[in-house]
Amino acid sequence: MAYLTLNKTKLKENYEFLKNIFQENGIAWGVVSKLLCGNRLYLQELINLGVTEIHDSRISNLAMVKRLNPDVQTVYIKPVSKRNVGKMVEFADVSLNSELETIHWISEEAVLQKKNHKIIIMVETGDLREGVMGEQLIDFYSQVFNLPNIEVIGLGTNLNCLNGVMPSTDKLIQLSLYKQIIELKFNKKIPWVSAGTSVTIPLMLTHQLPKGVNHFRVGETLFFGVDLFEEKVIDGMHGDVFELHAEIIEMQEKPMLPVGNLAANPQGEVAEIDEELYGQTSFRAIVDIGLLDVDPKYLLPTDNSIEILGASSDMLIMNLGDNPNKYKVGDILTFDLKYMGALGILNSNYVDKKVIS
C-alpha cells in the first residue's frame, strides 16, 4: 500500500523559522490545518510544536483539535452554513464572517451555549471570494458590534485564493485604514488586521508589509516552505516535509505507443501519438496509487530520470526509460508533493499516514 510520511524534524524547523520571523515583526499568527484533513496523528504533531491557534475550514477537524487540546484557540475560516452554526460555535472560538444574518445566528447560538464568540469581519479587496465591500463596511460593523456574546476582534481579507490577485502594500494599507476609521467612529478597539496568509509572507520578508497588519493565517508555507511570489522554497525552510511512497506492482519493457483504435479513456482523454516513437520501447512501472487519491500533475518524482505517463483510478504509470537504477517489482518510488497533491492524499482513506524523524 502507498503511504505518506510527515517529517516532524523538518516540520519543526519550518515552524521555528516562521515563529521567529513573526516574533521579530510583532505579528500574531495561527496555523491553517485544513491540509491535514483532520488526521489525528498529524494534528497532534502540530500541537506538539506548541501551536496555540489552529484554523480550519471543517468543523469536524476543529472538533478533533479540541479533543486533543481544548486550550488551543480554534478558528473557522469560511462562512458557516445556517444548519452548522450550532456545531461551529461549539468547536470554534473564532470565525471569519461576511454576512449580517449569519452573525445574528451566531450571536443567538452563542447566547444559548453561554459562550463568547469572536469574529473577524472579512473585507473584499479584489480577489472576489468572501468579503464585505469596503463602502458597506461601516454600516456592517454598526449592526454587529453590540450583538450579545459577539466580540469583533479583527478585520481580515483573503487574496490569491480564487482569481489569483496578489497581495500588495496598497491593498493592505487600505485594510488598515478601515480599521482606524472604525475605531475612531465607534470608539471601539479592533485588535487584529488579519491580512496575512502564506502568499503575504514575501512582503514581510522584503519589508513591504504595512505596520498595521498584525495577524497571519499560515498553512502552505509551513508545510512546504514556499515563497508563493517566486514559487520556490524559502532559504532556511524545507519543501519536503511531506513525501509520498508508492510500491512498484508491475515492471515490464513495453512499446512506447499504444496499439489499436484509440478512443477516449474514462477521464475523457485521447492519447496523442508521436510517430517518431513507433518501434521504440521503454521500461514502464505501475505503482499502487491512482486518480482516486491524487492528480498526477501534483506529484514530483524524486528520481529525475522517471517520468509520469498517466494514471487510472488506482494505478500510476511511470516511464523509466532503460531503467538505469534497476528498479524491480516491490521497490518503492518516492514523490515530492505540491499542495493540492498532499491535500488529495490526506483526504484519501486508502493511503497510510506515518510520521518520521
UniProtKB/TrEMBL annotation:
Keyword list, A-Z: Isomerase, Pyridoxal phosphate
Sample GO molecular function, one term: alanine racemase activity
InterPro entries: Ala_racemase, Ala_racemase_N, PLP-binding_barrel
Pfam family, one: Ala_racemase_N
GO CC annotation terms, alphabetical: cytosol
Cofactors: pyridoxal 5'-phosphate
Domain Alanine racemase N-terminal, chain residue ranges per copy: 8-224
Protein name, as recorded: Alanine/ornithine racemase family PLP-dependent enzyme
Species annotation: Algoriphagus kandeliae
